[in-house]
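Batch manifest, entry 17 of 40.
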Amino acid sequence: MECQDRTELAQLQLERLQSTLNRADRNVPFYHNCLGAACVEPSAVRSLDDLDRLPLTSREDLSKNYPYGLFAVPLRDIVRIHTATGTGSNPTVSGYTKKDLGIWKEMVARSLTAAGVGAEDIIQICFDPGLANWARDFKGGAEAIQASVIPMTPLEVPKQVMVMHDYKTSTLVTTPSYARQLVREMTRMSVNPNSLSLRRALLLGEPMSESVRTSLEEALHIQIQTGYGLSEVPGPGIAYECRERQGLHINEDHFIAEVVDPETGAQLPPDEVGELVLTSLTAKAFPLIRFRTGDRATLTTDICSCGRSFARMEPVKGRADQLVVIRGIKLHPQLIRGIMSRLGHGSLSAYVGFVRRLEDLDLLEIWVRVDESHFSDEIKMLEHLVHTLRRELEQSLGIPAKVRLVEPSTMALYEDRLGQILDERANG
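Output type: structure tokens
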């Protein structure tokens, strides 16, 4: 399938697209209404060229249809329900049938084999709790190719290094930031990379520059591949990098990928940077039609030197929206606004957020303005807000957060950025 003739692949995509549209129109009121508003009947889609006539789906649409409004099958057919952070007060909820999970396992297995992983490998999976679902998917994909798996466990970094050494891990699956922590800890523990059995790593969940890839390869004496996934779909197997490293192969038998102008939504030609849009072709429980990922990317359909014919995307080139990626978790400023408004009973204190990197660890910090005119009981209320906000952010995102009360004179420097999240991490 990965090396199929592109004309035959296009025909397969069209057939699966028509099936998806019919199922979504029949079983999902949101899509029935959207297609009706666009004056597009599923039967009118007779070519992939008709794709741009279909409406776009946003993260806001997912939140508005919380929890099960976008499910296309009865709940009795759902075997897994997954939740991801949304753009507002509601999270996004996606569901899977047994067949959906089997398809996802196949896609993750493809990403592993494309990286050179086989049955003889021992795979160690290290993700932050917010990507626990990805860890589960990689465990399933690795077992499908009969590799040995060390599943994700909540161990401290030194323990992970010990496991890597003692268990003779040959393949590491984690995020770039976690890999940097491992390298730092190995240096502190005086662990020589040559004493490890590690040969390769798959680093996913967040952007990784070529300079970071090179430095990690040199530090660990390994080859690194990357991949692409979404927490809303969710999963890490949408696109994967082969050993030629000429871009990420999109699983086009399961997705149609487009690049559109973020402002107008118009399709862009190959090799132009725009917003990546994905349409699922085989998802039974949770079909997505032209979902706006918010990721900036480019596409090419040139055949890779590995022989795979699937279209390829370059690594993500930033965001087309306000989302910030922290340790693989996407955070929208509206989420913080919603929590603060709810905790303040409708009263919203001035605030600004920062994402910073400390010793290779990405951290979220929120500043909340406290005015001199506040009385002591109001200060106590704000301190309660600080502790509650920190706890709710950590529970919602699965990553640590710090919240500070800040004087007006300090906040004045960010007067035009209030309510935003400022990414202060160095590139890469």
